């Protein structure tokens, strides 16, 4: 059996990869894996169940049994997410949950427990997978791997505008500090650190619009003839 093709999009938070992955999946009519949501869901569930964010064995057990439904399969981050019967679509997007996700994501047993769950998203006609280690660990055979970056300042600015638009009271310098701390944890961890796969195409979105990033990716897809 020929397995469904995968396009991986890895990079730090705020690089635009979530938006790009969502639009790409929609326009190709492919499935979408927002792997960061799985780590966020685990951190959220752990807090609900009173499990400490450094209790590796219990967290791995929780990860293996996480009762999650993604409703609206190919519509990216706007898909509704149901955890243990409750809608948590917006709740898991907070900065607090992001910080917890970054902590549980550093634990090897947790990453292991989530591996098969992530690979199960590789279904026909194809998959766009967004995360940190999609190209290096989860889908090393993917025919197109993209590593999307942007400067920390630009990523903080984007996040600031997003949160302000939602009416949240946030400080730009606080967000920049948080982004730097998360980058440090995500790139320096011993297991599956954030880094480009050797065969990834690297794009810096600091000065590029989402449309320009999409254009570059679409031309790579055409070049490789992977979307039929
Ligand atoms: O992409 P995001 O902000 O939703 O990810 C939340 C956290 O999960 C982030 O700090 C890093 C971690 N993560 C990871 O380690 N591996 C992935 N494939 C996706 C996310």
Characterize the structure shown.
The protein is α/β, with parallel strands linked by helices and 228 residues long. It has a single domain (6-212), classed as Rossmann fold, CATH 3.40.50.300. The chain is 48% helix and 15% strand. It has 9 helices and 8 strands. It has helices at residues 17-28, 35-49, 56-65, 95-104, 108-119, 134-138, 152-165, 172-188, 210-224, and strands at residues 6-10, 31-34, 68-71, 80-83, 86-87, 127-131, 144-149, 201-204. Strands 2-6-1-7-8 form a 5-stranded parallel beta sheet. Strands 3-4-5 form a 3-stranded antiparallel beta sheet, with no helix packed on it. Helix 3 runs parallel beside helix 5 (108-119). The longest helix is centred in the last third of the chain and has 17 residues, at 172-188. The model has no long low-confidence stretch (mean pLDDT 92). Bound molecules: 2'-deoxycytidine-5'-monophosphate (DC). Its EC number is 2.7.4.25. One of its GO terms (molecular function) is kinase activity. It is found in: Cytoplasm.
